[in-house]
Amino acid sequence: MSRRDIGTDDPRVRVRPGKGSRPRTKRRPDYSNAPRAQVYRVDRGRYHVTMVDDGTRVIAVKARELPHGSIVVGDIVAMTGDLSGRKDTLGRIVEVDERSTALRRTAEESEAAGTERVIVANADQLVIVTAVAQPEPRPGMIDRILVAAYDAGMKPILLLTKNDLADPDDLLALYEPLELEIYTSAISEEAGEADVADIAAALQGHVSVLVGHSGVGKSTLINELVPEAERETGGVNEVTGRGRHTSTSAMAFALEGGGVVIDTPGVRTFGLAHVEPEDLLRGFSDLQEVAEECPRGCPHEAGALDCAFDEADDERLEARVESFRRLLHSRTSMEPHWA
């Protein structure tokens, strides 16, 4: 063992031995019996939760050891601190329970391009809200969200709104062969109060998340289902044909009679870089049977040798193949894609 350098050879100098740093323990507190709550809103570092046992609403902060972005709407979390829900009190989220589902989206724009994040946790239904007019429907976006729903293990539902402004038959013809649950409604600012009985029945007893472009009627639907929600609604820009963002963050609302519906901000892109290419076909059930005629290992890309997709003999299937290949390309290229 080498002699410690004390800066002098004088034998009269005595140096006290240094205090060894005590190694950090790897043991972590056990929160298995801590009260549980479900997150219904995340807002600027504050987490709004509902206690599972008695329904008390509590505002909380997260423990320092939990990473940024690790808590989303729908999460079931372990709580400590002041759980009374009284004004100016804060609980503390110390642990996030394992999720049954996680709806993911990969950013395709700006410096965040390629960054995957969870939007909503523990939902079992994903409602794709699409207007048949104002803004014009974009089947490419519908296809992306369908893929995301299957990847997350959620049941997809297609809701076509504003059918008082245009005929939904073209969209119905495109997606009915997929054996999706499809609902139509006159949900729009112009329609006033809309009949939402059918979609309301489909949401009962489930945790459902609404996803779609801005201006398609998500917040209007929430206000019909939960009148006390008072979500801000907005129109569509007459020049661009795009909706104006009104919801700025996801928020969950309890439905009368059971169930939860989660409103999300309008999206213009829905990146799928986190989905493996072989899993993209799960959102195209009508193409899966066609793919069985492809040679083994076929990538299904344009120009692929003997790809059965090139033999699509009707206009509808050709459109579906084009949408699938566009998704496949955008997933690998990570270029911004406006569906």
Automatic annotation (TrEMBL):
It is an enzyme of class 3 (hydrolase). Residues 1-35 are annotated as: Disordered. It is found in: Cytoplasm. Residues 112-270 form the CP-type G domain. It holds the Pfam family RsgA_GTPase. Its cofactor is Zn(2+). Zn(2+) binds at residues 294, 298, 300, 307. Monomer. Associates with 30S ribosomal subunit, binds 16S rRNA. This is Small ribosomal subunit biogenesis GTPase RsgA.
